Amino acid sequence: MEGIFITFEGPDGSGKTTQIKLLEKYFKKKGYDILVTREPGGTDISEQIRNIILDKKNIEMHKITEALLYAASRAQHVAQIIKPALLEGKVIICDRFVDSSLVYQGIGRELGIEFIKRINDMATEGTEPDITFLMKISPQFGLKRKFSTDECNRLDMEKIEFHNRVYEGYLRLEDLYPERIIGIDAVKSIEEIHGDITRIIDEKIKL
Q: What positions does the domain Thymidylate kinase-like occupy (predicted)?
């Protein structure tokens, strides 16, 4: 059996972590072998790169350095974790993937989607999600949620204009890839959102 690759995208504070945990339980109840991972991260090397990228002290990091570090972390993650798990027939649920780089670095940092796509095509070697859930919530609301519970990282500290560009970028991607990227109203209750996600899973993926 070929594995299933599901990713979650959206602004910080959109509830991705909560919904990933609920979806993991949903699949486990059905008897599936589940791998939950995240980006940047997922391997020892990738987690070390994550720490560099998100460290608030690294304010001098150039935007191309940032983009290449994300791609480097992803290359290790795909080669070491994601591709082997897919070959083993596992269900992979990943918090962020290439779409995050397209919007945060391609649009937010204004490096261009094509540049980001080129470096990530090398990193992923053609590995793409089967389905991506885009948690749709205004950046202002999402950041307010995050700051109330988590310590902010280097990207969280960007001006609201940056976060607005990122969110608009997500909406563009949703229009570009409607078969893969499914928008989810992240303002709904946790239970309602989980119900929407599992209904879409049942419709789109034959379990």
A: 8-197
